[in-house]
């Protein structure tokens, strides 16, 4: 328990240092673009693939469970929309991102630690935490855009699966999507993803930056960071749902 | 062209009248119950290649890391040209670190950057030079370390010796006042080691840098050891230069210097030669 509290304390001290003594903008700018390319653009293909098929699966599962003829078929679209906006896109994709982007962040920073590149930065007088972590945080500010695309593709996947699977007509599906729509749910999804983006940038960075050992430990740190990122995402998901939707 | 062109601008005093140096006074460092440095005092002067030598576990890496500020000493002081490191605030420490060049044992080049990006890094980070000025300076420094046609290559595409040259170029590109090298010859063949040693010594003299090298390579000790600090079990056992080290009767250092078969045989040959010479002289006198 003391070890966990110690880790939490070090995590917040790390955050303080990340925002302390910023790196020159001319140096920081290309780093931010590089991180946007690696973390956001680089993740788009897997996010698009998963979102599209998850939307389809949700639609089919809902359709197969709607056996009562009194329940309108438009509920398939309604359930797909709600599932995708409220949970599947923000949370499920964040878990995927913890594996893809989180592991990349931990292993890249961890390798820099092992090969003394972080020591080299420190000895030069560079605030290594700001140099390494800050661009990732800024890049992941764009994470809600990824989720916006994920939501669109998820619903599109649901529409394709439901309509071309012969479960519901296109008009009825579109009517179902529009039924009882609360724009706040979109805001709720974006608030969640904004916070998840911060978690995705900082927890893997923490595990990479403070790792000790060699190549094997870089792998272990990646695994640990994935587990902790998932745990924190799920806990924050629960808290935000209680706070914003209850 | 003098790579230290702007060196005097940074100093608040005239470097000609005051000798630049690093002064270490009674530094102690422990890790848990293990006392690694036990009150070491010495000075490292500018324009000289200062060597810290000793067996593995003697405390030389901890000593170097303490000098660099990576470890904080439990007791004692380290001063850089009169500036006591522990008395500096965080920003002053960072500013001092920009005056330090470091060559790491494994080179520690940024593997996502090309050779020229690695060398340009301190300039981009700490100066307001334009891109063309930076590239001119990078090319000039790479020429100085005899490294051409590797600008666009990544560190994993060049040999260990070339990586060391790039690391040296990166360390000196921003006119450091202090250059630290952690085992610069490790992993290099003897011929390349000599080239690297000579390069470090030439640069030290040319730019009047205070150079501190951590090594256990006896070739380096004999070739460039203008000041040698020998550590044993965390204590300064002996200090001198590369001529004195061959004549010393200090048992620990004799054991260290002549621990390899090659040096043992050289020493035996020298002693036999000396005895023969004495015998010849005595015969003459008789």
UniProtKB/TrEMBL annotation, chain A:
Keywords annotated in UniProt: Membrane, Transmembrane, Transmembrane helix
Originating organism: Flavobacterium rivuli WB 3.3-2 = DSM 21788
UniProt entry tagged with the keyword Membrane: yes
UniProt GO MF annotations: phospholipid transporter activity
This protein's name: ABC transporter permease
Annotated Pfam families: MlaE (PF02405)
Disulfide bond keyword on record: no
Top-rank lineage group of the source organism: Bacteria
InterPro entries cross-referenced by the UniProt entry: Permease_MalE (IPR030802)
A cellular component term, taken from the record's GO annotations: ATP-binding cassette (ABC) transporter complex
TM region positions: 39-64, 137-165, 186-206, 226-245
């Amino acid at each position: 328990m003391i070890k966990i509290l110690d880790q939490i304390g070090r995590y917040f001290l790390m955050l303080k240092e990340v925002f302390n003594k910023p790196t020159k903008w001319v140096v920081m700018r290309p780093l931010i673009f590089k991180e946007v390319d690696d973390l956001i653009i680089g993740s788009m293909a897997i996010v698009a693939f998963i979102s599209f098929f998850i939307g389809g699966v949700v639609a089919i599962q809902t359709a197969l469970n709607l056996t009562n003829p009194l329940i309108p078929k438009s509920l398939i679209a309604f359930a797909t929309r709600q599932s995708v906006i409220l949970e599947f896109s923000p949370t499920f994709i964040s878990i995927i991102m913890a594996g893809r982007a989180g592991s990349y962040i931990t292993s890249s920073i961890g390798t820099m630690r092992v090969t003394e590149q972080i020591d080299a930065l420190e000895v030069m007088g560079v605030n290594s935490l700001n140099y390494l972590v800050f661009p990732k945080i800024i890049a992941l500010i764009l994470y809600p855009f990824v989720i916006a695309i994920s939501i669109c593709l998820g619903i599109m996947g649901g529409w394709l699966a439901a309509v071309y699977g012969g479960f519901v007509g296109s008009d009825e599906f579109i009517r179902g999507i529009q039924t009882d729509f609360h724009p706040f749910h979109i805001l709720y999804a974006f608030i969640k993803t904004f916070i998840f983006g911060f978690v995705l940038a900082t927890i893997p960075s923490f595990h990479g930056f403070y790792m000790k050992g060699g190549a094997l430990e870089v792998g272990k740190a990646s695994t640990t960071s994935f587990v902790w990122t998932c745990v924190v995402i799920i806990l924050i998901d629960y808290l935000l749902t209680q706070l914003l939707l209850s | 062209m003098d790579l230290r062109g702007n060196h005097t601008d940074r100093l608040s005093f005239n470097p000609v009248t005051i000798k630049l140096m690093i002064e270490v006074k009674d530094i102690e460092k422990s890790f848990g119950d293990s006392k690694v440095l036990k009150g070491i005092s010495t000075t490292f002067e500018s324009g000289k290649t200062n060597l810290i030598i000793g067996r593995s576990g003697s405390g030389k890496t901890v000593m170097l890391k303490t000098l660099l500020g990576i470890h904080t000493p439990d007791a004692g002081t380290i001063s850089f040209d009169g500036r006591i490191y522990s008395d500096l605030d965080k920003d002053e420490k960072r500013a001092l670190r920009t005056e330090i060049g470091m060559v790491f044992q494994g080179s520690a080049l940024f593997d996502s950057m090309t050779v020229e990006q690695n060398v340009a890094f301190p300039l981009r980070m700490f100066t307001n030079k334009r891109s063309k000025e930076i590239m001119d300076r990078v090319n000039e420094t790479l020429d100085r370390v005899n490294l051409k046609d590797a600008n666009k290559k990544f560190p994993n595409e060049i040999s260990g010796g070339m990586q060391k040259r790039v690391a040296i170029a990166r360390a000196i590109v921003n006119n450091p006042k202090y250059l630290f090298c952690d085992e610069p010859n490790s992993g290099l063949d003897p011929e390349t080691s000599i080239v690297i040693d000579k390069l470090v010594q030439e640069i030290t003299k040319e730019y009047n840098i205070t150079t501190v090298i951590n090594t256990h390579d006896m070739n380096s000790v004999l070739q460039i050891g203008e000041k040698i600090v020998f550590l044993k079990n965390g204590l300064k056992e002996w200090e001198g230069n590369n001529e004195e080290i061959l004549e010393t009767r200090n048992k620990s250092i004799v054991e260290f210097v002549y621990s390899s078969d090659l040096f043992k045989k050289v020493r035996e040959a020298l002693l036999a030669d000396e005895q023969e010479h004495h015998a010849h002289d005595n015969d003459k006198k008789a």
